[in-house]
Amino acid sequence: MTGAEELRTRTRDFLAAHPPAGTDRTDFLRARFDAGLAWVHYPVGLGGLDAPRALQHVVDAELAAAGAPDNDPRRIGIGLGMAAPTLLAHGTDEIRRRFLRPLWVGEEVWCQLFSEPGAGSDLAALATRAVRDGDHWVVNGQKVWTSSAHLARWAILIARTDPDAPKHRGITYFVLDMTDPGVEVRPLRQITGEAEFNEVFLTGVRIPDTHRLGAEGDGWRVAGTTLMNERVSIGGARLPREGGMIGKAAATWRARPELRTHDLHRRLLGLWVDAEVARLAAERLRQQLVEGRPGPEGSAAKLSFARLNQEISGLEVELLGDEGLLYGEWEMRRPDLVDFTGRDAGYRYLRSKGNSIEGGTSEVLLNIVAERVLGLPPEPRTDKDVPWKDLAR
How far is CA 246 from the centre of its chain? Predict the structure, then answer.
């Protein structure tokens, strides 16, 4: 088994052969992947060395100290956090070899085609159809709230392939080519003024059967891998102390003593403690991932993330008083990424409203935590055995 010292030596040898200052960024990242230093816990040949996941920090520390470029993880977060674990767990060898390297390097951006206008919280009710046509599938339907669809080269897609089966059992999971002529992406302008989300219309899109992940009709189980990893990637991101929203509010408090009141001080301290507890809980969750795949605990982390962001941003706007009502710009843009900390307090306040919707609504996640973490009785689900085509819509 690869140990910390061996990884440290490997990384230093790699840096000697590929000095960051004299190597093209893309070439450096490709070489890092090929050397197994991308995801050390992934298999050999797929960016890893079959090493313990906990040792990734050894590689990252050596590379950071040498000034090596990263793969801009915020821009390709859907690929890294959701698509890659699903491809690894359910893809064929051919699929994994084709997609993982350009995904990790950032040469190909990914998006997630799950939610629909009539299937958001009840995702299993989705109506986008995929019909078999020889060695291909023909897809028709509409997806919504799709981050990065305007930038994406590939998408992970779930579609209905058997309308006669109950809603959870008639779904199949695919990799879809976003450059297909039947794909139309339209911006969805949000309360922030930006259009970071999109709606996607699929008309006669053809997907080769070789781009199917898992068995036909088994897409809900495959989607579970994606969704659990999504919630961990949103709620369990590694942050330093006072990282994220709480850092901005604390910085404003320290810089503007004239704005302070006793009540705001009390509330800020309470949220600071909550943010630190959430940060440490996320660290423990990441350590648990060393032993296997994410479980329902990721839903609790995502719940905490949404609540804290909304409460902290609300406090920050209140702390700033009249200044908190100012808004920097309302230009319609289609950004490459979401930048909470690089914008003003008004933006953070408005954008955080979406945190309790994206990646699973807080109401749905509360049910998951109640049933799968706390072991409480499940809600009655009278439609779970009813064929999808017979459901009321």
Answer: 21
Q: How far apart are CA 377 and CA 380, in angstroms?
A: 9
Amino acid at 162: D
CA distance 285 to 287: 5
Please name the residue that has the structure tokens 């040498």.
66
DSSP structure string for 52-107: -GGGHHHHHHHHHHTT-----TTTTHHIIIIIHHHHHHH--HHHHHHHHHHHHHTS
Geometric angle at alpha carbon 346, from 72 and 321, rounded to 5°:
140
Alpha helices for 245-320 (secondary structure H)? 245-255, 262-289, 297-320
Catalytic residues: 230
- List, for residues 258-303, the tens digit of each pLDDT value: 999 999 999 999 999 999 999 998 888 777 766 666 667 778 888 9
pTM above 0.85, yes or no: yes
Euclidean distance between CA atoms 379 and 375, whole angstroms: 12
- Six token digits for residue 256: 């503007």
- CA distance readout (Å), 52 to 11, 44, 49, 87: 15, 13, 9, 19
Listed in sequence order, the residues at least 6 apart from 195 whose beta carbon sits closer than 8 Å to its beta carbon are: 150, 187, 188, 189, 332, 333, 334
